[in-house]
């Protein structure tokens, strides 16, 4: 219940801040964009992006949205590193938060089909695969690891590999779309390749969820 209340408080605070800034408009949109572009490339901005991802993932909030705040402003290796660091940190945070969950949250999580998939497929390779598949809930992987007591070294290694792979594909795909600039650029091999890989991962994720989720 504490985690549930904290999530709602955070969401309300973000909503209130957005409404206030939209009404006040202290800076022009172009000025804000210029500041954001400069800040996100500074060490402090990078650290803040990682910290925000960790917080969001640890609280089972959509930390994946940070992809759009990171990938367009960094080269592919840097974006992959930032996204992987934030995602793995959030995975460790969720692992720790799992011990603080109340009975209601534990029952809700343990009764979900994705959790049953993880409970049946908690080995290293299976964790890597589930981490890499788009659409498989981060919260289930993060909190489920703690609830199931998965070995921490294996859990961390699988998170680094699986989340690193997924971050690399997503960052490359978003970067390719941003740099394409024109309709013609969208059909270049450098753009189509990562998008095709992303589509393949999405298809595999849906297939695995349908296959494993239907068992037991």
Please give the number of β-strands. 0
Number of helices: 11
Q: What is the 3D shape?
A: globular
The first-to-last residue Cα distance is 29 Å
Helix content: over 70%
- Low-confidence runs: 182-186
Specify the biggest β-sheet: none
Order of helices and strands: HHHHHHHHHHH
Characterize the structure shown.
The chain is mainly alpha-helical. It is built from 11 helices and no strands. It has helices at residues 2-24, 29-40, 43-58, 67-70, 76-97, 103-110, 113-120, 124-132, 138-148, 152-180, 189-213. Helix 5 (76-97) packs antiparallel against helix 10. The chain is globular, with a radius of gyration of 19 Å. The two termini are 29 Å apart.
What's the layout of helices and strands?
Blueprint: H1 2-24, H2 29-40, H3 43-58, H4 67-70, H5 76-97, H6 103-110, H7 113-120, H8 124-132, H9 138-148, H10 152-180, H11 189-213
Helix pairs in contact: 3-5, 5-9, 5-10, 7-9, 8-10, 10-11
Short description:
This protein is mostly helical.
Summary tags:
mainly alpha; 216 residues; 11 helices; globular
């Amino acid at each position: 219940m504490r985690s549930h209340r904290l999530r709602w408080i955070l969401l309300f605070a973000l909503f209130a801040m957005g409404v206030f800034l939209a009404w006040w408009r202290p800076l022009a949109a172009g000025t804000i964009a210029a500041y954001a572009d400069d800040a996100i490339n500074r060490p402090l901005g990078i650290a803040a992006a990682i910290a925000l991802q960790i917080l969001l993932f640890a609280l089972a909030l959509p930390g994946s949205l940070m992809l759009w705040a990171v990938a367009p402003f960094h080269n592919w290796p840097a974006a992959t590193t930032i996204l992987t660091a934030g995602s793995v940190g959030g995975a460790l945070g969720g692992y720790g938060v799992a011990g603080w969950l109340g009975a209601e949250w534990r029952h809700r999580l343990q009764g979900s089909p994705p959790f049953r998939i993880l409970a049946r497929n908690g080995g290293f390779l299976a964790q890597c695969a589930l981490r890499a598949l788009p659409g498989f809930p981060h919260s289930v992987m993060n909190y489920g690891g703690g609830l199931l007591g998965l070995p921490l070294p294996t859990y961390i290694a699988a998170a680094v590999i699986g989340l690193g792979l997924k971050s690399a594909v997503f960052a490359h795909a978003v970067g390719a779309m941003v740099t394409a600039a024109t309709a013609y650029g969208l059909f270049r091999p450098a753009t189509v390749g990562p998008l095709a890989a992303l589509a393949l991962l999405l298809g595999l994720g849906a297939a695995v969820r349908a296959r494993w989720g239907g068992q037991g």
